[in-house]
Amino acid sequence: MQPQMSHQAMGYDRASTMFSPDGRLLQVEYAKKTVKQGTNAIGIVCSDGVVLVADKRISEKLIVPDSVEKVFQVDEHVGAAASGIISDARVLIERAQVLAQQHKVTFDTPIDVQSLVKDICNMKQQFTQYGGARPFGVSILFGSVDKDGNGGIPKLFLTDPTGIFFEYKATAIGENETEINEMLESDYKDNISVDDGIRLAIKMLKKVLGKEFEIRRIDGAYISVQDMKFIRLTKDKLSKYK
């Protein structure tokens, strides 16, 4: 019997709080596998901003494409893209929106994205530690331009179901994340512009999706260093980058 099967047979995957004999939390590992079954989301830090682009995967012809959201506005200067169970993402992103507004009202300054990410990851971690609740089956990319002196600094963070977070120059999450990350490692440059970043992200989605690629299934946004505002990419704008 394979080790994973024996763990299942002995019930080590029945609760997120139960360690297997080799020190694994199997429910948390299953949550990470859920993310890898989700549609792709890509984040790229550029010289003049940060870009978030995601595949919405319109599963039925009668669905209105604009009603499917994979890239979310968190604050004026913060955006997020998710892969995995999007209903889980919605709960976390709504919490992030409230935290951003509370910080603005309390301190009269925009929240820095790392503080926001830490709070969301604390919530994710809690759901791996307490009984009666399952882990969040979603990874979220948070992109932001944080104010620094007279300018802004573009930043990108990845959060996973364990509650771990890392800062990246560019990364992808979802079903084709390995292939896309390999392409990012070879094609990403530190001085890439927002326009080129959007073009690169769409090119990568086009490659991994093949014949299934359609511009209507792409969701995207960027935040520029100049005005530090979240700007959603419309279908017409996205069509220019095909």
* Poorly predicted regions: none
Structural class: alpha+beta
What value does the Rg take, in angstroms? Answer: 18 Å
Overall mean pLDDT: 92
Structure description:
The chain has helices at 3-9, 26-35, 86-107, 113-126, 177-187, 194-209, 235-239; strands at residues 41-46, 49-55, 71-75, 78-84, 138-148, 151-159, 165-167, 170-173, 218-224, 230-232. The chain is α+β, with helices and mostly antiparallel strands. It has a five-stranded antiparallel sheet. A five-stranded antiparallel sheet has the order 3-4-5-6-7. A hairpin with a 2-residue loop joins strand 3 and strand 4 (78-84). It is globular, with a radius of gyration of 18 Å. The model has no long low-confidence stretch (mean pLDDT 92).
Short description:
The chain is an alpha+beta fold and 242 residues long.
What's the structural blueprint in terms of helices and strands?
Layout: H1 3-9, H2 26-35, E1 41-46, E2 49-55, E3 71-75, E4 78-84, H3 86-107, H4 113-126, E5 138-148, E6 151-159, E7 165-167, E8 170-173, H5 177-187, H6 194-209, E9 218-224, E10 230-232, H7 235-239
Notable traits:
five-stranded antiparallel beta sheet; alpha+beta; 10 strands; about 240 residues; single chain
